[in-house]
Amino acid sequence: MNYKVKGGKQLSGAVQTNISKNAAVALLAASLLNRGTTTLRKMPKIEEVKRLLEVMESIGVKIEWADNGDMRIVPPQKFDLSSINRASAERTRSIAMFVAPLAHLFDSFDLPAPTGCDLGKRSLGAHVDALSRLGIILEGDEAKHTYHVEVGEKHPADIVMYEASDTGTENVLMAAAKIPGTTTIKFASANYQVQDVCFFLQACGVKIEGVGSTTLVVNGIPDINADVVYSPSEDPVESMFFISLAATTHSKLSIERCPIEFLELELLTLESMGMEYSRSNTYKAENGHTDLVDLSIENGELHAPPEKISERPYPGLNSDNLPFFVPIATQAKGETLILDWMYDGRARWYELMNKIGADVTLLDPHRALVKGPTKLHGADVEAPPALRPATLLLIGMLAAEGDSELRNVYPINRGYANLAERLKKLGASIEAVE
Hints:
The chain has 434 residues and is of the alpha+beta class. The protein folds into two domains: 2-18 and 234-433, Enolpyruvate transferase domain (UDP-n-acetylglucosamine1-carboxyvinyl-transferase, Chain); 21-230, Enolpyruvate transferase domain (UDP-n-acetylglucosamine1-carboxyvinyl-transferase, Chain, Alpha-beta prism). Helix content is 27%, strand content 26%. It has helices at residues 21-31, 47-58, 86-89, 99-103, 125-132, 166-177, 192-203, 236-248, 264-272, 325-330, 387-399, 410-413, 419-425; strands at residues 2-7, 12-16, 38-40, 62-65, 71-74, 108-112, 136-141, 146-151, 158-160, 181-186, 207-209, 215-220, 228-230, 252-259, 277-279, 283-284, 291-297, 309-310, 334-339, 359-364, 367-372, 380-382, 402-407, 429-433. The strands form six sheets. Strands 2, 14, 15, 16 and 17 form a five-stranded mixed sheet that branches. Helix 1 packs parallel to helix 7 (192-203), helix 5 runs parallel beside helix 6 (166-177) and helix 8 runs parallel beside helix 11 (387-399). The N and C termini lie close together (5 Å).
């Protein structure tokens, strides 16, 4: 699929934040822990979710996905990995989170190695180290392009995470959930998707202390066999996409159901750049835990921030939100330094913005200098094989004068549902074509 865009238009109206991609895929993995029926409400119809469903169905799981997004997940009497959908598994890094749930079902097994976004070297060292302390040994087999897992005598442990990895913390949570006894996880990620996994496991009967902090205490139980209904929370990264879109196109937009706890530093940074906004009173998401607000973005006069912009573990600026400052910086007066230290290769994709008239210089593999404001223009560009860098190009094209085409937008469809249609409702001129 390609996107054809006629840019340069000011947008207007309201858009609602969808359910979180990262929470959705983590909860699909967590549902494999449950021998009862799991119902996940309003699951996003995105490619990343579809790939995991294809894998789950191939190993015997029954999936019913209603038009309203509610998903009913029924486990088989016996899982069968012999016919696992390798092609689908290899298209998503989220498959790595199947390691812990399957370690409660098999003593030894292989999983196809994931690929997913091309963001340079992304080590699973945090998973390997932490899981080994629980008795689960994860190794890579480069020749077979698989992960091999050997499960010894599982036991609780005190764990210090090698890094505050979101997916690493989720894998350890899922492993500890069904190991009787107390497991303590220090330097854990406290990010939004990790909190959703904690809330889901609590609904399954697992006691977890410290949710939202960097120390989690899990009191595991021997079995989970319950009919559970859970509502994942909204996606702060999708909220940030529309915030960036409004700022870059100099538009006034209302963005509803924004998980404010995971956007506060982003908004503070944008305030320092001259963006004006207002927010509603706080209300709860359907999971009963996450705080939401409605944001109204105004058309402020943008300038470079006083300091560099860099991601940090929560409660810092979210790593997935960092790329959205690139298109904003192209319209801000001065020089904006963006430090993307977390990934070895993501910053190189920011220079693709130069194809539509931006002035982005890659200083080294992690630092990009953006000079603004620049007048953006239309261009024909191949989408990079990485979700967030692909979406920032789309934002730039919507702000650029003239016609653009963003080709092969599968990376965007991994994380956003019906994006072209939603943008049209805001006044954008965009067509999705085969």
